[in-house]
Amino acid sequence: MKTALVVAAHPDDEVLGCGATIARLSHEGWEVHVLIVAEGSTSRKEKRDVVSSSEEISGLAKCAEDANKILGVTSVSLLSLPDNRMDSMDLLDIVKIVEGYIVKYQPALIFTHHAGDVNIDHKVLHDAVIAACRPQPGHVVKELLFFEVPSSTEWRPASSGMYFTPDYFYDVSEFISKKLQALSVYGSEMREFPHPRSIDAVNYLACWRGASVGCQAAEAFMLGRCII
Ligand SMILES: [Zn+2]
User: Fold this and answer.
1) Ligand 1 centroid to residue 57 C-alpha, Å
2) Residue 224 burial (CB count, 10 A)
3) CATH classification code of 3-226
4) Distance, CA 137 to ligand 1 centroid (Å)?
5) Residue 10 Cα, ligand 1 centroid: separation in angstroms?
6) In the β-sheet with 75-81, what is the strand arrangement from edge to edge?
7) Distance 222 CA to ligand 1 centre (A)
8) Crossing angle for the helix pair 176-185 and 199-211, nearest 10 degrees?
9) 5-53: per-residue pLDDT in tens?
10) Most CB atoms within 10 A, among 41, 46, 176, 205?
């Protein structure tokens, strides 16, 4: 049994970043676990107030369960780190959380955020995953891939930092419909086209990523590390 772990900051990032690949791997018999670390809601208010946002938080959690069921994942774990305020935490605490899930699920493959995203939680989590995947002798993680999240990754201007230049692609021609179906469950997080986080834009991106490597639809990644 092959095992993958998707480490995402917010509910919907896992689908935006690699939802069709999750569906493909699940279909191919992989065990796919999804870890979402932040609650994804409280940053919309002036101050963090978990109590007054509890309805939104539980609504998002339900969306995450339903969306990931469509993709066929083995498990979804939802934590409640502070939305868009993960830079207020000690990085070590986040590293230890990720390490705990690596020990629990023993994934050979990990998907997570790209380091250059505009969103602060994406960047912090990227660093935490890199630290948790230090390739010490006997470490279980053999492959590390960074995904793109529309409305965060491409909003980093190329001249302002690390830009997303994909070098690793999954042909998801048969699975893009599952991704779009899963995204439609996250209705509150989606926007109208031409916002990049719209169903149409996500579909167009998959078509373009596919066209750039000769298939109908693809999800694109940057390779962090591969040990064979
Ligand atoms: Zn996010």
Assistant:
1) 14
2) 20
3) 3.40.50.10320
4) 32
5) 5
6) 75-81, 31-38, 3-8, 109-113, 143-147, 218-226, 168-171
7) 17
8) 160
9) 999 999 999 999 999 999 999 999 999 999 999 988 777 777 777 777 7
10) 41
